[in-house]
Specification:
alpha/beta, 10 helices
Amino acid sequence: MKPVEALVEFLGSLPPGGSLLVVTGAGISVASGIPTFRGTDPGAIWTHDVTTLGTYGFFEEDPVESWRWYLSRFEMVFDAIPNPAHRAVAALERWQLGREGSFLLVTQNIDTLHEEAGSHAMVKVHGSADRVRCTRRGCRNASPAGSIPRSSVDMDAFLAAPSPETLPRCAACGSVLRQHVLWFDETYDSHDDYAFLRAHRAADGCERLLFVGTSFAVGATEAFLRSARYARARVMSIDPGEHLSPAWVEQVTAKAEEVLPAACAALGAT
């Protein structure tokens, strides 16, 4: 069966009122110009030592360098625009809800392309690049629920002369701000926005689980796979390269920005 036909059959065989969970990884944003975080892609972000750079421990040790490192990489995130795969996922949400079914998008990405494309029923399990939060426990802008828009923080002084004195600070308490992302030495329950329990419950009850552009190297995907298999859900993975998913997962070897829009057109999802 051809990739588009396989995807149409996978989605179209879901009865009205059924449950669809879509999980996206960095691969879905490659066509928007954002490199993956792992793998052999040119410019892959985690070709350096992620256990050093992407941790709260590194931030505590050298907050200036941590901020500089993230800001240099966020430039490409904020310049990107949604590609056809992001818009197709939003169309699937509208299609599924129009059939009185349940839908949830769980993205491992910290870019804002899904929401810009029109997705609403969404969980960002790794946080979001467009927000920051305070480091002082008890501050209203800190964990477990607080954060503020990155656009509300004046970073001119830090960008002009990065130093401990110019680090971005919380307007409420004066403490240093941090990225609103899940670092590798943190847990999913460290902030309410990660909503991992909501995502896990959706996997527990789904009838179709569609992975798009994920390496299956993150703990969340393993948890979703276990839940979906226990629920006897059908699971499919879309990826143009080597599939690292378990053998029992249905595999579509194609670019998401090509097959997802074509499948949506065939299903009448607009």
